[in-house]
Design goal:
By secondary structure, the chain is an alpha+beta fold. It has one domain. 22% of the residues lie in helices and 30% in strands. Strands 3-1-2-4-5 form a five-stranded mixed beta sheet. The protein has a three-stranded antiparallel beta sheet with strand order 6-7-8, covered by helices on one side. Helix 1 packs antiparallel against helix 2. The longest helix has 11 residues. The radius of gyration is 18 Å and the shape is globular. The relative contact order is 0.19. The mean pLDDT is 82.
Length: 144
């Protein structure tokens, strides 16, 4: 069956076409419906050719994160030249973590004469590293 390939600077991600389609259809509510329709159109083919998804489609990285998180696909690390099953990858946090609910505010002593302090803008997300610690993919998934 024809694979779906996505590349980052440090990795090549490879997924079975059937798994990709199933994920997009089942998880459609997690993504923009127009983007899902565009991706399904892009990967729908009758030939046995490899399907390359361009890095110019920025939201596809989120699909890759979710598939890897579900243990789907294989990844070749360009830095160490090894191929890993998705289950072998290490999840990593980006910025303030993978969820805004994971933030632990650090309180400093003192008080403000002006009143309430505004929380600075924060962001976070997640990514994956190979077992040797090379960053394969990382994406910002939230911002305040």
């Amino acid at each position: 069956m024809n694979p779906v390939i996505f590349q980052t600077e440090n990795a090549v991600f490879k997924f079975a076409l059937k798994e990709m389609k199933e994920h997009l259809i089942v998880s459609e509510s997690e993504y923009n419906p127009d983007e899902v329709a565009q991706l399904l159109k892009l990967i729908s083919t009758d030939s046995d050719e490899i399907i390359l998804v361009s890095a110019d489609i920025p939201y596809f990285g989120y699909v890759v994160l979710n598939l890897i998180g579900s243990g789907k696909g294989i990844v070749t690390c360009k830095l160490c030249g090894k191929t890993y099953d998705a289950s072998q990858l290490k999840e990593s946090a980006v910025g303030h973590g993978k969820s805004p609910f994971d933030i632990k505010q650090k309180q400093k002593g003192g008080f403000s004469l002006i009143g309430k302090r505004k929380n600075p803008s924060m962001f976070g997300g997640k990514g994956y590293k190979c077992p040797d610690g090379h960053v394969l993919i990382s994406m910002e998934t939230w911002r305040t």
